[in-house]
Design a protein that fits this description.
Largest sheet of chain B: 8 strands, mixed
Oligomer: heterodimer
Number of strands of chain A: 15
Radius of gyration of chain B: 28 Å
Number of helices of chain B: 21
Strand content of chain B: 25-35%
Shape of chain A: globular
Largest interface: A-B, 17 and 21 residues
Structural class of chain B: alpha+beta
Helix content of chain A: 40-55%
Strand content of chain A: 15-25%
Chain lengths: 465, 854
């Protein structure tokens, strides 16, 4: 049995794995008061792929108000998700800038002056930016705002919903164009192709005061934790999954293609029998014509030819594009009882039901373990039985409070929960010690961002307005 | 009875002499006792139904195992009262004499039980220290394997609290008390500082007296008076468990078990058991106040009860198979110092309070009701209730945040082991001297009095602080050498003690009014030349000390009055009560205006002389004088040649803005004289070895100057007839029946023996003779010194005998510390030969001739 035991991780080992990517941000208080409707957020990631294909981002808009939180779930590599994590928030922020601010921005670039920063990032040390592509990315962004300047008039202030929509579509378009144009620098050329040929879903929240917007493309999900009057929590889903389980999506895709493709466009719950999410960035294999794909690949750098995946053309590929990055946008006006928002990649939602997610987080954040209060009622319970029951409950609570980070806490449950809804250390340990090649069979990458709202600020905002 | 099921409430009378608010056990007890004392025209108002508040859910244990003697007395009386109540009223009360067992799981707890036993014996309450195996004989369920011993109190009892409540109401109603249910008091109306009427939801009642017995709601009711009344209490949830009858019914007379180390109590209940406790993590409740009629059965919280259930099953493993009946949640109200709140409120005459019972409401209600009724009848109860007097608190203890934090400490503390000199940890640093930070960085360890932080001693640099914080012991504490060093410095060089917490008043008038008032209030003669300091008592009609203070004549018509810290509210209201309503007379509380530094020691003279360029020798600055001088750059410092310890030195009363400057100057100039900081522990050692009595500790409202050898401070021949004069004259005629003495312990090993604290019985020739009031180790005598009162055994006629010199001088005295008696020498004055010659005069004053009538 000693060999068997050697595979069991000790609790500190489990913790070091679970906490490796955790990150917390508290919105600083101003003058002793927290004036932001977002008190802060906790986030974490647990890889199943090596390297992990999920990405996350969080930033505060400096030129406009509001906070951006996003989860990006990559597939066929991490390049696209990485690009989204660096670029999407800039596209959103620029889309929301008033005409006059855009003009100032352009004037500053023109004159070689320092730019006033647009975003304040809140990053974990592992959340890197790819330095080589920064100039390329910046030039694309600048072209975008120049166009925005041309399209708008002085005094114009964009609408948040429209801004989110435009940002998503524009960035996906830029990713596509950059891949078509290529780059004299071979490394960069290879890079932009990898971004375009890989894919990623995106679920982004924009919170400003009591206004919460969710822009979602793909199967990551945003769920609101609502505290009921009795103290318990219920889940309120703010995004729709874009996948085969969503009838509206299935209908949309079938409508966009001729009836002849009705059977082939979605097969085995996948787009063209291949792709799980029905909306995504990148994935030009599902967007470009076959000719374009061939042309781009032929002119591409040599490394590309080693990758069989990119050369492969999906079956029944007749009427591209089959895939879009156009987000579905949800608006929610925050109420004081809306206590937190959980954005998670599908890796989270396939292990825990959303109601369970909200219960676990709610109990963690309120600090009170809202276990169902025990009542004896009419049952026959002896003191000894009751003591046993209470001791077990106590042990459960104490193990639950090891985490300083709500996302880590939720992760622990997502990976380690047993059939009774409590963390089973042995199970947790086994799941975390799976060899790389096996891990992906038992679970997906998990990325979680949990942001907590300040009910007093939200209450006051609602009252003022 | 006024209670009953009549849905039609009785009509509200338009006026009454007394209105009592609260129909719980406390309110009905007050009504019962007032009626017994002959009061008529009493109305008792209850917002819901009688006994529907805490009383309904109370566990029903009447035990005399209480921390202080006055509480033991009240519980003892309650027990006797409830015992005969059934006979008196015909109402069944469920009274069963079960006795109780206080268990000790460790030696320290056992010591504290032995100390309790010593105290109870003094009061004539029977109790026995028993071995663990005797516990088994008394209680079939108790597991004794981890017990060191126990205290058996055979007279303790259990009752059904709502039935006792009902019986008291029936008896009171029988004496004419009108009891009105479903009548809520909304406001108390006040005119010229006196209660005038009570406004209820059914109209108002004019009255002379109002008694706030509103329990949980007493705080809010206090706030709902035209002149706000501070009733510092706060609620906490309290849980107890009821089991179904055991397989073999637990006999109704099975003793109550108090397992304080396990934080639980248990009593027999309907063939099963009732068990609750005082957990470490209490749940405060109603902080934001709440208007609800009756405390409904609140939510049970099993997870919260888990530690107590475990403790119960550890104590009584046989209960594992017992079936649960119910977990009861019954909020109780707690006060900042674990003692109840009793008496007339300061500044609002006719407004009385009895509340904040700290979950001993049933045990205290009888005795407390009796004392309050006496108070209202005679102006003061028949026992010293100062520890319970609501005037020990002021407004400063009525912040909700303070109360919430403090009661969270108080509730667990009820069952925690109390060792000598323990302090509260919460609600601290409320009032501090401007020097607090300076002293703190120099190693000060703090204690709190009346919200004020006072240094206990100073940890020298390099000492292991952690071990010092663990000085919780009944034996020699680990600060022993530190305090010894401070005392030595006071004796040989000079020390500075920050005594800013003292209560300080200024009384001024345009004419002679201030002097006249003080001559009337004080036993000593205040008509002294300007600059003189007079130690004097302010006595009550019985000649007892209401206050013991030092009065300085600042000018012809202005006086500076220095009183003990905890006198701030009490003394203020005492003076105010006797002060004529005269616009020429002005009393001001200046406590906060002055920082007080006590410079103790032979070199104090040198330090001050150097700082002021004025000679400070006794020839130039005799003892008991006050001068305004400059010290360092600061002018207008009141320098007084007294130290409150009998040692040479000075008190400096410094306007607060100069405090830091003067302190720095004193410390820097004092360096070459070996100056250092000292704390109150050193002060106490010094004052006790010098036989200095302190009010609140040694002196109380029942002690006269004649009983403590202070006749020299009573000027019978001054022109004014001061309060208490005739009582003292009578006492001088009759002789005193008890005498304040100093007892020096022999054969007491400071290292190995238990230390005396206070409250230890004193035996003379083998007979109980009295009890100690304070004690300290005297570093000069290298012995323990206890102060206390002794009385000779009654004469052959059974009447109290007067104290004779022979009784003091020839008696074989012993002090009982936790059951162990130590021989002691009784003294009527300190060992003058050991102390400086300056104080020769005092010795003469204390000559025995003063003891007896002429």
């Amino acid at each position: 049995t000693s060999t068997l035991h050697s595979y069991i991780l000790t609790p500190p080992q489990v913790n070091s794995i679970l906490k490796a990517n955790e990150y917390s941000f508290k919105v600083p208080e101003f003058d002793g008061k927290n004036v932001s409707s977002v008190m802060g957020f906790d986030s974490n990631q647990l890889p199943a792929n090596a390297p992990i294909e999920d990405r996350r981002s969080a930033a505060t808009c400096l030129q406009t108000r509001g906070m951006l939180l996003g989860v990006f779930d990559g597939h066929a590599g991490c390049a696209c998700a990485q690009a989204l994590s660096e670029r999407l928030f800039y596209y959103i922020a620029v889309s929301m800038l008033p005409h006059d601010t855009l003009c100032e921005l352009e004037a500053a670039v023109e004159a070689g002056r320092a730019l006033s920063p647009i975003l304040q990032w809140q990053k974990h040390p592992n959340d890197y930016f790819s330095r080589e592509a920064q100039t390329l990315y910046f030039n694309s962004l600048r072209t975008y705002w120049q166009e925005l300047i041309d399209l708008t008039n002085p005094g114009d202030v964009p609408d948040t919903r429209e801004a989110l929509m435009n940002a998503f579509k524009r960035l996906d378009n830029d990713i596509s164009l950059e891949a078509q144009v290529g780059d004299p620098n071979a490394f960069l050329h290879y890079w932009v192709l990898r971004v375009a040929f890989s894919g990623a879903t995106a679920c982004v929240a924009h919170v400003d005061g009591a206004d919460l917007y969710i822009a979602n493309a793909g199967d990551a999900r945003a769920v609101l934790g609502v505290q009921e009057e009795d103290g318990s929590f219920t889940a309120h889903t703010l995004s729709n999954d874009h996948c085969a389980q969503n009838e509206d999506e299935v209908a949309r895709i079938r409508e966009e293609h001729p009836p002849s493709e009705r059977k082939t466009v979605i097969r085995q719950d996948r787009l063209l029998g291949l792709l799980m999410p029905f909306r995504a960035f990148g994935d030009v294999k599902f967007k470009w014509s076959i000719e374009l794909q061939k042309r781009v690949l032929e002119s591409g750098p040599d490394q590309l030819h080693e990758n069989e995946h990119t050369k492969f053309i999906p079956p029944n590929y007749h009427t591209p594009p089959y895939l879009t990055a156009e987000p579905e946008i949800t608006y929610h006006r925050l109420r004081p009882q809306d206590r937190f928002l959980v954005i998670g990649s599908d890796g989270l939602w396939e292990t825990l039901h959303r109601q369970e997610v909200v219960r676990i987080v709610g109990e963690y954040l309120t600090g009170v373990h809202q276990q169902q209060p025990l009542t004896v009622g009419g049952y026959k319970v002896t003191l000894g039985q009751m003591q046993g029951l209470l001791e077990e409950r106590k042990a459960r609570v104490s193990s639950d409070f090891e985490d300083q980070n709500a996302a880590t806490h939720l992760m622990r449950h997502a990976v380690g929960n047993n059939e009774f809804g409590t963390v089973d250390h042995e199970r947790l340990s086994k799941m975390l010690s799976l060899p790389e090649e096996l891990a992906r069979m038992y679970r997906d990458d998990i990325t979680i961002i949990i942001s907590q709202f300040n009910p007093h600020v939200i209450g006051a905002r609602r009252h003022e307005e | 009875a006024g209670s009953g099921d009549s849905s039609q409430p009785l009509p509200l009378p338009s006026q009454a002499r007394v209105v009592i608010c609260g129909g719980g056990i406390v309110g009905t007890s007050v009504a019962y006792h007032l009626a017994k004392l002959g009061w008529t025209d009493i109305v008792l108002l209850e917002q819901g139904r009688l006994g529907a508040g805490t009383t309904k859910l109370c566990a029903g244990i009447v035990s005399v195992a209480k921390p202080i003697s006055i509480e033991c007395k009240m519980a003892d009386y309650s027990n006797a009262l409830y015992k005969q109540l059934e006979e008196e009223t015909g109402v069944k009360t469920g009274y069963v004499k079960t006795g109780s067992l206080c268990l000790a799981q460790n030696q320290d707890r056992f010591i504290s039980l032995k100390r309790l036993a010593s105290r109870l014996k003094v009061m004539g309450i029977s109790c026995n220290i028993v071995k663990p195996k005797d516990v088994t004989k008394l209680h079939p369920l108790v597991n004794i394997h981890d017990l060191v011993g126990a205290l058996h109190l055979p007279a303790d009892a259990v009752v059904s609290p709502p039935d006792v409540n009902h019986a008291l109401a029936v008896a009171a109603a029988g004496q004419g008390v009108q009891i009105l249910e479903r009548t809520a008091v909304q406001q108390v109306l006040v005119e010229k500082g006196h209660v005038m009427a009570v406004e209820t939801d059914r109209g108002s009642i004019e009255c002379e007296y109002f008694v706030n017995c509103a329990g949980q709601w007493a705080y809010e009711l206090g706030q709902a008076s035209e002149t706000k009344v501070s009733v510092p209490l706060h609620g906490c949830e309290h849980f107890y468990l009821l089991t179904k009858p055991l397989q073999e019914d637990l006999p109704a007379d099975t003793p109550v078990v108090l397992d304080m180390d396990g934080r639980i109590y248990a009593r027999p209940w309907q063939g099963g058991l009732l068990s609750g406790g005082f957990e470490k993590n209490p749940k405060p409740i109603f902080t934001e106040g709440r208007n609800q009629l009756e405390i409904q059965n609140m939510q049970e919280d099993w997870d919260h009860f888990e530690p107590m259930l475990s403790a119960l099953l550890r104590r009584m493993p046989g209960l594992e198979s017992a079936e649960i009946q119910q977990l009861v949640n019954c909020p109780e109200s707690f006060t900042p110092d674990m003692r109840c709140l009793m008496g007339e409120t300061p500044g609002l005459s006719g407004y009385y309070v009895l509340a904040g019972m700290n979950s001993s409401g049933l045990a205290f209600a009888g005795g407390a009701g009796k004392y309050l009724a006496e108070w209202m009848t005679y102006g003061y109860p028949t026992a010293n209730v100062w520890p319970l007097d609501i005037k020990r608190f002021g407004n400063l203890q009525s912040s909700r945040t303070f109360l919430r934090h403090r009661v969270m400490e108080v509730m667990p503390l009820l069952y925690e082991l109390k060792v000598p000199r323990w302090d509260f940890q919460t609600g601290r640093q409320l009032r501090t001297s401007p020097l607090y930070d300076r002293l703190d960085t120099q190693g000060a360890r703090w204690m709190e009095k009346h919200g004020f932080e006072r240094p206990k001693y100073f940890v020298p640099p390099g000492k292991d602080l952690l071990s010092l914080d663990q000085s919780k012991t009944f034996y020699k504490p680990d600060w022993f050498d530190i305090v010894g060093g401070e005392v030595k410095c006071c004796k040989e060089a000079v020390c500075v003690i920050d005594m800013s917490s003292f209560t300080k008043f200024e009384l001024t008038s345009s004419g002679d009014e201030a002097l006249d008032l003080l001559q009337h209030l004080c036993a000593n003669d205040l008509d002294v030349p300007v600059g003189h300091i007079v130690h004097t008592g302010m006595l009550n009609q019985r000649g007892g000390y209401e206050n013991d203070c030092s009065v300085v004549r600042l000018s012809k018509n202005s006086f500076f009055i220095i009183s003990p810290t905890d006198q701030q509210v009490h003394c203020w209201s005492w003076i105010k009560k006797h002060m004529p309503n005269d616009p020429h007379l002005h009393l001001e509380d200046v406590s906060w205006k002055y920082t007080a530094l006590n410079l103790i020691g032979p070199r104090a003279t040198d330090v001050l002389a150097e700082l002021s360029y004025v000679s400070m020798t006794p020839d130039h600055f005799p003892s008991m004088f006050c001068k305004e001088m400059s010290v360092g750059y600061a002018n207008g410092i009141r320098v007084m040649s007294m130290t409150h310890t009998g040692e040479p030195g000075f008190m400096l009363y410094i306007p607060i803005e100069y405090a830091l400057h003067v302190y720095n100057e004193v410390m820097s100039v004092g360096q070459k004289y070996g100056i250092r900081n000292a704390g109150y522990y050193a002060l106490r050692s010094l004052r006790i070895e010098k036989f200095f009595a302190f009010w609140g500790q040694d002196l109380d409202t029942f002690t006269t100057p004649l009983e403590c050898g202070r006749e020299f401070r009573v000027k019978f021949d001054k022109d004014t007839d001061f309060v208490g004069r005739s009582a003292l004259l009578q006492q001088r005629q009759d002789g005193v029946f008890r005498r304040f003495v100093m007892l020096v312990l022999d054969d007491h090993d400071t290292e190995l023996d238990l230390w005396p604290w206070w409250g230890e019985p004193i035996y003379c020739n083998g007979n109980l003779a009295g009890a100690t009031t304070s004690s300290a180790y005297s570093y000069t005598l290298e012995r323990h010194v206890c102060l206390g009162f002794v009385s000779p055994p009654p004469g052959p006629d059974g009447l109290p005998a007067t104290v004779t010199p022979d009784f003091i001088n020839r008696g074989d005295y012993e002090v009982d510390v936790a059951g162990q008696r130590y021989p002691a020498k009784a003294k009527l004055y300190p060992f003058s030969s050991l102390f400086s010659q300056q104080h020769r005069r005092r010795k003469d004053d204390l000559e025995l001739s003063n003891l007896q009538g002429e």
